[in-house]
Design brief:
The structure is a homodimer of 225-residue chains. Chain A is mainly α and 225 residues long. Helix content of chain A is 72%, strand content 0%. Chain A has helices spanning 3-12, 19-22, 27-46, 53-59, 64-70, 74-98, 103-120, 122-131, 137-164, 172-184, 186-189, 198-213. The first copy, chain A, is elongated, with a radius of gyration of 19 Å. Chain A starts with a helix and ends in a 12-residue tail after the last helix.
Chain lengths: 225, 225
């Protein structure tokens, strides 16, 4: 079992029904976890704008008044979901980026981690990718700063690959946006019951990402206008 | 001037202030074009959910009642914007896909067309990419059918490339989603006043797309698990 898949099993655990209550978490923390999970599911299904605090309260069996006892409001909830999502995957991505293996192998592992996280923690990741724009200004800077730390690890791997000659010289920022776009777009088409097994998607997208940047040794890659 | 850039100049024209009124279009059609343009800009800026018919009426200097004289409602408006966007780019993409040139060259041109359309017709394309999900069921099938015609042209080029040996054998659907994800993701980061000139983005993303799929002649592309 790789580091990534182990983490994902761990990360997926709180999403099991009742797990947060039955586990070692204090009752209040259990309710908080349930609220976050229910809110992420609603934001994913109907979008942040259309989700009400009333709807979230209903999903966890609280009155709207009691819900405010646990959480300050919809913006605070969204912010916590986004932070939570990064807290889970940032340490693993940091470990991958810092590994002593070739950049192409690290890029493949980073793409794989991103895809598996998206698949196993879908409500949260979709919120992260689709609803971050809905954050109010007072939360936005902190969110963008942490999101950039995540994305910078992809750029670091790409930069290492260019320096080592594994990857073609290219603009690191554009290359990072291309790779992240490829994988983030999955939130629009991936279905757990879809036709492609997770393993196939992770493997092929790893190939595409590495292929997109690979230094093929002076082969003509087309007119650069 | 390539076919693509010529089309884009044409496509971009109605977005100029007053162009639809000053041009050869009948007054009523001019107002309709202005409504579509204003709605696309508002949907882009504040999202479909948060935009009201009142806000659209205000943007074009009509009362809400007069606006309903021109258009049935917000859903009809969104649908028309999405159809309009495809009407502009589908014929050009069809021409590129059917050209007698190598698949890698056609893929590069298709990516370029997509990127330039996105840049020049930004409000409409962002609506197309971000707000299509907001369409009511009665419009959704027609939208998805046409969107799939567009995406199928990318798959056709990729399939041709696999058959000719230019591209590695891969799953055509996943490869298409990877390439489209890479370029569609631009709606999240592209800014007209950003640091990368349009030409650079189109050229590099064309390289990435072709590189992702290129058959490097039996070179090891990593463990496919």
């Amino acid at each position: 079992m790789t580091t990534e898949s182990r983490t994902l099993v761990r990360a997926a655990r709180p999403a099991e029904p009742g797990a947060s209550v039955a586990g070692a978490i204090a009752p209040d923390q259990g309710m908080r976890a349930r609220i976050l999970q229910a809110a992420a599911a609603l934001f994913h299904r109907q979008g942040f704008e259309r989700t009400t605090m009333q709807g979230i309260a209903h999903a966890v069996g609280l009155t709207k008044g009691s819900l405010y006892h646990h959480i300050r409001g919809k913006q605070a909830l969204l912010y916590e979901i986004l932070q939570h999502t990064l807290d889970r995957s940032l340490p693993d991505l940091e470990q991958i980026a810092a590994a002593p293996s070739p950049a192409s192998e690290r890029l493949r592992r980073a793409v794989r981690l991103h895809i598996f996280t998206l698949m196993h923690d879908r409500d949260n990741v979709v919120c992260f990718i689709e609803e971050g724009r809905s954050l109010a200004p007072e939360y936005r800077d902190a969110y963008l700063e942490r999101r950039d730390r995540y994305e910078a690890l992809f750029r670091r791997i790409i930069d290492d690959g260019i320096r080592s000659g594994e990857f073609l010289p290219t603009d690191v920022r554009l290359a990072g946006l291309a790779v992240l776009g490829m994988v983030n777009w999955m939130v629009r088409w991936y279905r757990p019951d879809g036709r492609h097994p997770a393993e196939e998607i992770a493997s092929r997208f790893g190939d595409y990402a590495v292929g997109a940047l690979r230094n093929t040794g002076g082969e003509d890659v087309g007119q650069r206008a």
